[in-house]
Amino acid sequence: MSSSPADRIQSVQAAVYRVPTATGGRERPESDGTLEWDHTDMLVVRVHTGGETGLGYSYTSAGALAVLRDTLWSVIEDADPLDSERLYWTMARAVRNLGWNGVSASAISAVDIAIHDLKARLLGVSLTQLLGGAHDGVPAYGSGGFTNYTDRELTEQLESWAGGGLRAVKIKVGTDPHDDPRRVHVARAAIGPGVDLFVDANGGYTRKEALALAEPFLERGVSWFEEPVSSDDREGLRLLRDRLPAPIRVAAGEYAYTPTDFRDLLVDGCVDVLQADATRCGISGFTRAAALADTWGLPLSAHTAPALHASVGAACRAVTNVEYFHDHVRIEEAFFDGIPALRGGDLIPNRAVSGHGLTLRETDVGKYQVDGFSAGRPRR
Q: What is the assigned CATH class of domain 5-124+362-376?
């Protein structure tokens, strides 16, 4: 089946938005084991045919807009959106001299998401059903607990998630390894014994530090250790996966941009839980990661962007949870109508609508826009 000429991609609109970080209703920086930041940049892409619009987005540098404008638009202009596989690989080839990983990958991802959304809308099915429809919903885990939070801020955030029905929460560690066991103790006290506790070092520890901290973390019921060392240190991840005490699982994959990145983590035995982020690897890359996780018999966890990953994660059998990340929850609730419901700790995509169901609140988000681009034939 191919689309009619009227259903080919006729135009594109894209914008970069910059949203300040905030906690407790006030703007303030946030930090993890390796970085501090005071804003989040977001690229939103809409691709249009004669009668439908597909929406995609990624959390990325403002430089991704130039990749779309100067390289990707010429690839997708007048293309058939049903050919999502062809377009994904054609975009990947087009950025060969720029480099696929990083900013280029996030630009490709935003377009790839928009094309899949458009494809589902043209076919009149939800994105979840288009991609496979494996689950009705996906468990969400609360994620934040930044390393510059006070104990009170940490406690209030985690209590709100546990009280709201989330069955797992995650905090950042790694800024001060000597203080991390105490912070993990504060987190456990906040959520009680019945909620799973995850930690994320963002590659902030050395191998020895991660090994030394495993026992005190285990005593406080930690069951998930994300990027205990950098994902670039695959040998270190493998060592820690082999040596960390059960039931602590090693998770990594959020910085996997290409299918090869996921393959290498699995071939080298680096993870107990593979992660994937469709705003970095595209829906096309995410579904490949899910297939690889199935092949290796491992779970796949969707990294951040919960409004999107509710639909994508529910489509894939290997996906066991979605990260309900503080920054992205704030942004997506402010930017989009059609946010998936959170019920009983699960994110539930709306199968009654075509595509992922998200629409941009243009009049509300204009104050955050820092750059934009549009091209193609006028919409009819």
A: alpha beta
